[in-house]
Amino acid sequence: MKFSEQWLREWVSPDLSTQQLADQITMAGLEVDSITPVAGEFSRVVVAEVTDKQQHPDADKLSVCHVDDGSGKTSQVVCAAPNVAVGQKVPFARVGAVLPGGIDIRETRLRGAESQGMICSASELGLSEETSSGILVLAGDAPPGADFREWMRLEDTSIEVDLTPNRGDCLSIQGLAREIGVLNRCDVAGPAIDPVPAEHEETFGINVADPERCPRYVGRVIKNVDVTAETPLWMLERLRRSGIRSIDPVVDVTNYVMLELGQPMHAFDRANLHEGIEVRGARSGETLVLLDGQEVSLDENTLIIADGKGPLAIAGVMGGENSGVNVETSDIFLESAFFTPLAIAGQARHYGLHTDASHRFERGVDPHLARLAVERATTLLLSITGGESGPVTEVMDDGQMPSPASMTLGAARLRQALGTELEGVDVVDILTRLGIQVAERAEGWSAVAPSWRFDIAIEEDLIEEVARIHGYNRLPVRRPAARLALRADDEDRLTLARLRRQMVARGFQEAITYSFVAPELQQTMLPDAVAPALANPISNDMSVMRASLFPGLIKALEYNLNRQQHRVRLFETGLVFRGTLDDLRQESMLGAVVNGRRDPEGWSAGTRDVDFFDLKGDLESLLSLGDPEAWRFEPAQHPSLHPGQSARILRKGEPVGWIGTLHPAVRGQLGLKTDAVLFEVSLDALTRGQVPAFQPLSRYPEVRRDLALLVDEQLPVQALLDCLHEAAGEWLSELRLFDVYQGKGVSDGMKSVALGLTWQHPSRTLNDDEINQLVDSIVAQTGERFGARLRG
Questions:
Q1: Opening angle at CA 407, ends 401 and 412, nearest 5
Q2: 465 is in an annotated binding site
Q3: Residue 189 domain flag
Q4: Which key words tag this protein in UniProt (predicted)?
């Protein structure tokens, strides 16, 4: 909603500056988007009268004019505007004037003719963004010599307000004036609107076939209007300052009344109407050419205005081209109606339209405004276009008209919500100024909302209105009486979401299985497990609580294999239950099972099946998210895992899980025809990480030595690496295993382990003697502990 500040102040004018007024509106919930001057900056522009016009002797498109600027002498001006004429009142920039954009007006010669000033167009004065080929013609009563800026009252601003959908009542000068009057406790004085007496008896029939969507329709025939009359400059300026372009006096008046009162209106050419107006739903196959020239096929749910020959307009959205007012119109039918918001909501968007009328009807227009708007528009039209008004025809269904919402407001509830107690007289004054009918009752007030406020229906709405008008910034500021200390957050903890994302990134899908399993399955996979049995199980196949994630994952694997899924990668997180009910331990675990090809089927993929080390690599990718140095794998026996392909998972020496290939015997009992590899690890252990710590980079060179050690083939490489970390000293920066070899040159039962060791001192360069001593220490300790010796 864009409006002229001067127009608003004719209704209500508190003692506030423009910025203060905008701030007040914003704080009341009507956000001000922009404040812009209504004209550019210019000086020494006056009202003048064109007293003479002659054709320029050397230019076909130029005229030599003489203007009276009220100074007692005439000035000669060369003008290129085609619409300049003798007797016109025009804005005249005298010599020395400065126009918008810093344009200086000087005495000059154009094609040999002297020009002492400039007759201005609207765009040259910053009154219009569109470049015009004609000068601005003023009203005939404009006094020559008057300062143009003062006479046009250009010390004005256009204020644009961004309204929320519930405040459709403020889409008018009247609605905004009501708000400002309430906020400042000022009286609001709009123009007097008196009924216009009928000068003829002609009416036009109205039939509302859909009173549920159109409870009220008002119309009037006005005869002998002069559509070629000029809209007065004061109205044009108010429309322009509100962002609306002038079209013709009839449309200008309907737009003016819409801006002033908030009631959209439409005028039909009476000569193009037949039989009578009918408000109804569109019929199948009907079309309409709109005022913008667009032809639309009407949907049967669309509410339309029609006559005996067919559709005339989309109700509340846009009129039709064939029935619109044109230069040949002499009689008009002026309509004003109330359409329910739900009847119009979405109709404009359905046809790719958005109009000022639909914008207002969708948000709700005062249902009691239609007749008043007709009287106001009639008065303005008769004063501009002349003509004779007929009687007002009105069709109204009282049963379908919105009934005012009634509610109560409790004083205690108001005090609790606002955190302060307002005087009862102030509450009543606020609500009354808002147009709400208020009556005192025990412990509060009863209230009836005004017809223009569709958004006031419950007690909370009244509380919001009181708080808004009283001023949110005047309400007490209280801090909650609560302990707001920050809770400790373990920075070294990984989130479950991060672990899940890592598993998904490795090609796994998350499974969710039951927490209870078949006792036979659990006995097969975990013969020593002790877990509670359910007193009232869903079925015999789910009668004991799971002691591990393995049984559920194996059942999920079996389910997928039975449905021709030959490559399965599943993981699951959940609780496992160990012990009896009297001594029950619950632990969160993360488990996974893989089966089938290592890689998805593809032209570049291999055909090898997944094995123990593939799943171990997936698990190590999880471990690397936290503290990878804390984890170890050691060979161990598990009843459901292959004796030679199973390992216990340790974190800092503490057992926290298992990994391995499914035991062939267990696989046979379960009827699985392919291998499966599983792991299960404590979720608490997985989520423990470490906080990164900065370590300065050394500026000194690294020293690397490669060692090939011969050790027993059964020796775990990890044990050898641990020994090297102990023996290599504190300056060891990297230990890398880069080869394991068995074959020619290596004795049976032995293996060659090739290691790269890198040392770097933080504050000096290490010499060869120091490195040699460290290498000797490594060889000695590994030989003493594992019988290792240097190869070759």
A1: 165
A2: yes
A3: no
A4: Aminoacyl-tRNA synthetase, ATP-binding, Cytoplasm, Ligase, Magnesium, Metal-binding, Nucleotide-binding, Protein biosynthesis, RNA-binding, tRNA-binding
